[in-house]
């Protein structure tokens, strides 16, 4: 593994050249409105996680098409939370079991850990949310090409909608006046961008900050011609078989590109990029970061790391960044 992408000074100036579809905003506003019409009351059931300092509840809420989406709601057991972190998961990961804890509740935050529909097949973090919708046609193994024939049927239309609606759920659970943050690594980073952007596009309310960590799902045209390992490699595999679907495929992907979504976000943001990352190439991350319009943004760069990014060092940077925003 070596640094294979643009030099860092060029990354800091890099801008993706492809444009969002003319009906991008209408597509997402219509999608979100239709999903909210099918909403129902969120179910919250306390569970025994076997832990003394973190309390947990099993949450089920209405996602895309009213489908049930599962999540864990963790919070400090002995004090009011200082903020809420809504976290989205990496590719193939699920919400796991209630005793599997991250840093957030230990640092004083309530933590909504949102399952990814149709995923959760990673052995360490099993999922609990099905995707009841068909793929729409031919697809390569994995999720990246499910329903890719049309934006209406694409898998990530459902997953992005679930992510946006999860912010509504977190606000309802936390109550007013508690700062809300969104976070995630890899696919979770892409969902962080999508949730923050769609929330702003729909005018739902201010987000205190977004933490996209080595985000996936950004700058599809560059990513799929720069690397061929999975998950972007699933698209490469698909197009290698269906040679006549290139334009159709990238038209669909343009509605889900983190670069176009980032341009619609409003919250402060802390990104990360790793210069040896062959899963989410650094130029694709910088494409989204440079499109993010907020003046209050920063990106941590890890020159000698792959897709693991900054790891525990970056989590320390995130904790410091959040602490400055909750006083």
Automatic annotation (TrEMBL):
Quote the protein name from its UniProt record.
Acetylxylan esterase
Q: Which PANTHER family match?
A: CEPHALOSPORIN-C DEACETYLASE
Q: Which organism is it from?
A: Microbacterium sediminis
Example of a GO biological process term: polysaccharide metabolic process
Task: Write one Gene Ontology MF term.
Answer: carboxylic ester hydrolase activity
Q: Which InterPro entries match?
A: AB_hydrolase_fold (IPR029058), AXE1_dom (IPR008391), CE7 (IPR039069)
